[in-house]
Design a protein that fits this description.
CATH superfamily: Flavodoxin domain
GO molecular function, one term: oxidoreductase activity
Pfam family, one: FMN_red
Mean pLDDT: 97
Distance between the termini: 16 Å
Structural class: alpha/beta
Helix content: 25-40%
Organism: Lutispora thermophila DSM 19022
InterPro entries: Flavoprotein-like_sf, FMN_Rdtase-like_dom, ISF_SsuE-like
Protein name: Multimeric flavodoxin WrbA
Low-confidence stretches: none
Strand content: 15-25%
Largest sheet: 6 strands, parallel
CATH topology: Rossmann fold
CATH class: Alpha Beta
Number of strands: 6
Oligomer: single chain
Shape: globular
Order of helices and strands: EHEHHEHEHEEH
Bound molecules: flavin mononucleotide
Radius of gyration: 16 Å
Number of helices: 6
Length: 191
């Protein structure tokens, strides 16, 4: 079994990467194959609206990490996506990834695959719930399933890189999110 963990933060070792890594721990423990796809070190160019994908099923943009990502999405059994709140939205880097995924919309690569969402912002009510909705909307638009953490997706409040390491409750909730995705995957496999 294989999971892909995507972080939308441009900041390496920031709070989102820490939480995504924490959510991936249960997968390592269960022997899953894990891919960390962190946009702090990957390049996804924005969609240019040429609509080539609508005509040919392939994207006209070359020279970035989208080809690798598509093969990972095709081969994964589950996903985790996290993003900081940027202006009460996902980051531009993650939005570019969502837009570029238009190329796979007719191939149902994510259909029935369970996915979890993580949002981090400095503010209380800083847009984390919107970020969770936007990630869940990506899942639903792609035919993937939204897996809850303790209640919704994981919403966290942190600012400086590493702030989240002081919040054991949020780190534990990240692991719960990972464990829930594994449970959903096992239910899907049994059915
Ligand atoms: C351009 C920009 C916009 C931001 N907008 C928001 C926001 O709307 N709401 C919020 O709570 N925090 C906002 N923040 C703070 C980040 O979400 C916060 O620092 C977060 O911990 C960054 O995550 P990271 O460490 O994974 O990069 C913003 C930060 C930047 C740089």
């Amino acid at each position: 079994m294989k999971v892909i963990g995507i972080s939308g933060s441009p900041r390496k070792d920031g709070n989102t990467e820490i939480l995504v890594k924490e959510a991936l721990k249960p997968f390592y423990e269960k022997g899953w194959e894990v891919t960390e796809f962190f946009l702090s070190s990957k390049s996804i160019k924005p969609c240019i609206g040429c609509e080539t994908c609508n005509e040919t099923g392939t994207c006209a943009i070359e020279g970035d990490d989208m080809g690798f990502l598509i093969s990972e999405l095709e081969n994964c059994d589950a996903l985790i996506i996290g993003s900081p709140a940027y202006y009460r939205n996902v980051t531009a880097q993650l939005k570019a990834l969502f837009d570029r995924s238009f190329v796979i919309k007719n191939r149902n690569l994510l259909a029935g695959k369970p996915g979890g969402a993580i949002a981090v912002g400095r503010g209380e009510g800083g847009g984390q719930s919107l970020v969770l909705s936007i990630i869940h909307n990506f899942y639903l638009s792609s035919g993937a399933l939204c897996v809850p953490c303790e209640i919704n997706g994981l919403s966290a409040r942190a600012d400086k890189p590493g702030d989240i390491l002081k919040q054991e409750k949020r780190l534990r909730q990240a692991r719960v999110l990972g464990e829930n995705i594994i449970k959903y995957s096992e239910m899907i496999c049994r059915s």
